[in-house]
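It would be a great kindness if you could assist me with a short task in structural biology. The full record is reproduced below for your convenience:
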Amino acid sequence: MCRNIKLLFHFEPPTTPDEIRAASLQYVRKVSGATRVAAANQAVFDRAVDEVARATEKLLRELVANGPPRTREGEAEKAKIKWQRREKRIRESP
């Protein structure tokens, strides 16, 4: 139904409002089960996305980071390695 929600905390450069909004949209789509929103529900859906985005922004501001900041490239490389391991397990399973 929708992509995985991505990690947003402790990045350099910092997470953008667009990334927060995209994650919020994915979250609301997932919990509502809606990939397309009916016109009758559009206002409620948009309000939920806005509220999740505000809560996410506040959370990211207030969390305390330990360790060096993440990079998008580093996270992409980790995801690639994880995917390769998964593919290997699938090929090797009976």
